[in-house]
Amino acid sequence: EAAGNNAERQQKSRFLDAFYKLADTTLEGRVSGAETVIKELVKSSEESDSSDKLKYTIDRLIKGLPSTRKCARVGFAATLVEVLRAFPDATAEQVQACILKYLPEDTKEDKNHVILARGLALAALVRSGKAVEAAGSVAKEVLELGMRYSHLQLMACDIFKELLNQVNEKKFKKKVWPELQEMLSCGWEDCTPLKLYVLVQAASRFPSMVDGAFLQENWGCDSILDKPNYAHIVQILQKSTVVHPNVHPVCTLILQAVISTKGFKKFWKSLTDEGLLASRRDEHVFLAVQLVKWCLPQLTTTDKVEIVLSPELRKQVIHALSNSWHVLHSISCNLAQFLVELAKKSEDAQIQVAILGFFVQPPGTILIDHITKMKIIHDILITAKPECVQWYAEFLKGIARLEDREGPPHLLKPQREAFEQLSNLLHLPAMAADVDFRTDIVHFLLDAYTARVHHKDSAQGEAVRKLFQSAVLKSIVPLKKTQLTEFVDFLTSLLLRIKASLGDGASTDIKKCLKKTKHTLEKIDSASGLDESVATAFKVLLLYLTILTALGISDDPSSLQEVCSSARDLLSETSEAEEEHKAKWVQLVVDLALSMLSMQSLHVRAIATAAFAHLHNQLSDEALGLLLDVFSPKKSGDKEEEDSDDDEEMDDGAEGGEESESEASEEDSDVEGEENSDPDEELRSRLRAALGSAAADEEDSSAEDVVPTDDQMFELDGAIAEAFRGRLRPANKEKSKERTVSIHFQTRCLNLLNNYAKSGVAPLHHLVQIAAALVKASSSNALRGSHEVLNVISDTLHVISGTRKFGTILDVRSDIESLTSTVMEQVNLVSHVGMKNALSSLCAFLVRCHKKICSELAIKKVDKHWYMPLYMKTLDSYLDENSHISPQLFVKLMEAYPEHCLDFVEHLVPRATDCAERNYKRLHILGLLVAALRIVQVDASSKEKLASVLEALSELSIKLMTDMTEKSEPKQHLLVEVCDLLLLVAKQCANIGMECPIRGNSKLEQSLTSLRNTKMSKRKPLKAKLAALLKGVQTTSVDSSAKPAKSKRKSAALNGDATPKKHARKS
What we know:
The protein is mainly alpha-helical. Among the domains are: 167 residues; 230 residues; 141 residues, no CATH class; 129 residues. The protein contains 51 helices and no strands.
């Protein structure tokens, strides 16, 4: 009996605790509580008396609806729905009685909570399906709540709509209609948004009840949506703003009914332009914007979209969008983003035009992106159809043609922006292949430029002149999908148009320039045997520079003269001096390309890069030298750099000496500097001005001593500091600016070298020269701290190292050996990660080039392994000193030439087995050994050497594993390397047919078993390694000989892999 009572108490306690879970903030907690309540009710329903518990549950749930504790309203309402659905004994009358009893309107508690709870209880009753039998009273009570309390109108609409969906016409006529008939007979004068919503819902759901006779009698019309009723509907919808920021469902309900009819345009104009927007009230404009966002996705025709995006809407939205202080600024930004996304998704170009025109047509502006700091026009044009872009181009032309008649004779800001945007349209993806569009835009820009700012006596300002020049330059660059030969034809047509537009008004110099260019082009076209890529490059440079000169964009004709001179050398027919002429014209072209790269205009630099790419086959040693001179230190700065290097060497040497000597030398140098320094009169004058009377007193020895106050001393300190800052600041700024310009120029030249190395036509000795120059430049003081340039240098060196195809091969073995020695010294000093990896790859590339030269030129008497002493010396430095050397240096060589893996292993094994070796160095050694054993290729001559090495490494690994077992917390990195090493030892033993020394080793088995129980070994990679090792150790030799079929599978556990592999389908 006591046990039964105890079980009953636990069940009751569990049931009561479930009600507290219903208020949990997590969905899982509320669901768990609801399940417990329903399960307990199901258990009690099997007993004789279950009605009390069900009644208690319903009462408890309804009484808990007003609670504000956590998520009580959500949990109790949802559970009430499920309880009413699950138990047929619960009736609507019972729930209504509980509502009247526990949720009275005249309560002493907070009335708002009680009223909301009544709405939740009625919603639960409807959603459970129990409200059908009492549909009339439920509908009446729901609508009364909505009419009395405006904040419950949305809830009342949703509940009423769901109730109508549950009842059929018979029950509606019998139970619901009698309760609604009086309310719906009010007519237009007393109609509210809620009444209109109920009327439209009832008319659409049961048209036989809300028929024409009823409407004619009470509303004076045959249909609610008749055109004469638009004025009444608009007035009612304007009252629906009480539910903001939500939109009253009656608005969308009416629009849904009207949107597909012929009267939509008139209704929309009456609702928004003449109603909501005309009132100028913020809440009405807010509602109009929300209705626009709802309506636009439903429209499929352009005329309806234009009706929705009306000029009145544009006027108010653009005003709010342009002013961040406006109360509707946020909703206007939201509408702008909505329209941009709609334009992106739309496949209709006319709809895109309507959306784009909404922002740019007055009172909108093409400056909307600058004003709002948003990318509205930019984002629309990126994915716009060609028809939309063409419309916008014509729109911009119309703005650009306007003249400022009221102000001074300069372009307005929208007009200047129109020219700039016209040039930007040419680079859109949709217009890249449209030659006619590009020609039309460029011709328009050229005509505008020659008409407004070309002449010297033009009244346009310098800023406007530069803007026009930028627009023209931006429009005459080769596009990504355009061949350079097509670009030549394009430039030719432009030059002819410029010549025609200038006519007789051109100056004598320009006429001579045009005539000279025409003559040179004719010679290039008539030349026989001229390489097509070279001719194309010359034509591009010649035509482009001629256009710039004819337009007055370039005032210096020297560049054009250089191209003409190079063309003459190129077309020279003197066979004796052919190589000399070739070297000369290539140098001139490369020099011209470098001068164009130094310009600020991105578009001029693009022309230089495109032309240089067509001269890769013709690049001479002298021309390449001009390009590499960019990375050499200036002659004037050579001495300073050497001095700085000497200072660094002295500092390094002083580290091992006594500190007092270094301090004494520094003091001596300071004294000498002070003695030898020239007096700075400018600084003295500034100090005299800062000291003021104090300086005068110092000069006058007879003046009396005056002790200044603290404030005077602070003021004096500030004045002296400002005097020193005034001396140093301008020089530092100028120096920093020059350094930035130099770094940018060198980066552009590196891009040229990068493309040249990728072309596959570069001679081998050119690649070696480029690598030598870049390695030297990376160690200079000017570039050592520039990560941007070092990144580009490392990328270029990676491209060079990956080259497998060369144009020509010359015997430059001495240069390769010297560069390899330099790189080996450099890897000791470099700390930049990208440069370390690049130098590691470069060393292996240089070795490959050396072997390539020997094989191609049939050089037999040569030391094939000349590089190994350098590598071994660097390896000793890596192991003995704290250097910046990367282990990738050795791994790259082993990957390229696996025959050297055993040389590295033999060199590393004595160091690894040395008991005096420190652990962090041993970790590096083990890492290199693991890499070497993975790459090594075994042949008959190396089996004996490898066998002794494997024996020594297995003993070392077992000893290290035993030592780590004795420690409470072994080092994870060291443990991983030892595991990898043991797995590779076992794999290589199987490859050479040697019995694995770790198989059956009891000491190793104990160590592995102990290590598997540590917390560290629970991680997946290490766990798999230890498991594979333990499996291999436990497999004895007797087992493997007795079961040959499984021996291979068991030895596969020691294959050197960290994780077990699944069976993969062989391709």
